[in-house]
């Protein structure tokens, strides 16, 4: 009897308290689910915020890179311009120095510069006609002496040697003309006393000899020669 009563009371206790336990369990589950959703929402919001910040930073970085690129392009353009100017300046300086060292051109170092012209003093003797042709091969002509300054330069350079100059009367006896067609009698002359003499009636070409004085001799006579040309541009 007591045993049955105990079982009945136990059954009544379970029936009275079990719904409350189920309710508590359900509430716990709902609370946990709500917290989970809330946590997910918070994480999403935080992630979204970070994405927004990163996107903003990326935009700023792109803008900065673009500005830097434009700035670098400008700097590169300035440096390129300065480099071109420097190259041009160096080229001008090089040309200027070359002219100072070799005014008649680096390929014509055997030529001598004087008063805007270049002069070549030959190292071998030949006739007047051959000397004329050799000067023309050098894009020059036999020297024309039309001033005291040029006469002094040539006299100092030739010393006591004989050199052909571009003066003759081959076209008309007694009419001494320079190789460019100009009349020698209308300007500067430096004939040796008693010259031109036309000895034996065949002295039609002029050369300079001792003290730089001019003398007429036969054109087949062999002596050194002087070529003359303008300074190359």
From TrEMBL:
Pfam families according to UniProt: Lectin_C
Residues annotated as domain C-type lectin: 114-228
Record field: transmembrane: 27-48
GO MF entries: carbohydrate binding
Residue ranges that the Swiss-Prot or TrEMBL entry lists as coiled coil: none
Keyword match Phosphoprotein: no
InterPro entries: C-type_lectin-like, C-type_lectin-like/link_sf, C-type_lectin/snaclec_domain, C-type_lectin_CS, CD209-like_CTLD, CTDL_fold
PROSITE patterns: C_TYPE_LECTIN_1, C_TYPE_LECTIN_2
Keyword entries, A-Z: Disulfide bond, Lectin, Membrane, Transmembrane, Transmembrane helix
Protein's name according to its UniProt entry: Hepatic lectin-like
Source organism per UniProt: Pelodiscus sinensis
Top-level taxonomy: Eukaryota, Metazoa, Chordata, Craniata, Vertebrata
């Amino acid at each position: 009897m007591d045993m049955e009563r105990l079982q009945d009371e136990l059954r009544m206790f379970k029936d009275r308290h079990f719904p409350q336990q189920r309710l508590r369990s359900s509430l716990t589950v709902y609370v946990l689910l709500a917290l989970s959703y809330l946590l997910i929402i918070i994480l999403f919001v935080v992630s979204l915020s970070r994405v927004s910040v990163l996107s903003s930073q990326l935009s700023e970085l792109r803008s900065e890179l673009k500005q830097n690129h434009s700035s670098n392009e400008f700097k590169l353009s300035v440096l390129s311009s300065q480099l071109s100017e420097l190259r041009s300046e160096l080229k001008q300086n090089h040309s200027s120095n070359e002219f100072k060292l070799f005014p008649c051109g680096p390929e014509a170092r055997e030529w001598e510069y004087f008063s805007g012209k270049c002069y070549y003093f030959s190292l071998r003797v030949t006739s007047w006609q051959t000397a004329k042709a050799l000067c023309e091969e050098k894009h020059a002509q036999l020297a024309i002496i039309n001033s005291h300054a040029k006469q002094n330069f040539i006299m100092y350079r030739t010393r006591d040697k004989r050199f052909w100059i571009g003066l003759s009367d081959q076209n008309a006896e007694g009419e001494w003309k320079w190789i460019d067609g100009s009349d020698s009698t209308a300007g500067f002359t430096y004939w040796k006393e008693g010259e031109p003499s036309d000895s034996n009636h065949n002295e039609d070409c002029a050369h300079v000899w001792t003290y730089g004085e001019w003398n007429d001799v036969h054109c087949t006579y062999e002596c050194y020669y002087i070529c003359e040309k303008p300074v190359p541009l």
